[in-house]
Amino acid sequence: MSSQAEEPKRAAASRPILFFDIDNCLYPRSTKVHDLMADLIDKYFATHLGLSDQEAFRLHKEYYQNYGLAIEGLVRHHQIDPLDYNAKVDDALPLEGIIKRNPELRKLLEDIDTSKVKLWLLTNAYVTHGRRVVKLLGIDDLFEGLTYCDYSQMPIICKPHKDMYAKAMKEAGVERPEDCFFVDDSYGNVVGAKKLGWASVHLVEEGLPVPRTPASEYQIRHLEELRNIFPQFFKSSNEA
Question: Architecture of domain 17-28+100-239 in CATH?
Answer without folding.
Answer: 3-Layer(aba) Sandwich (3.40)
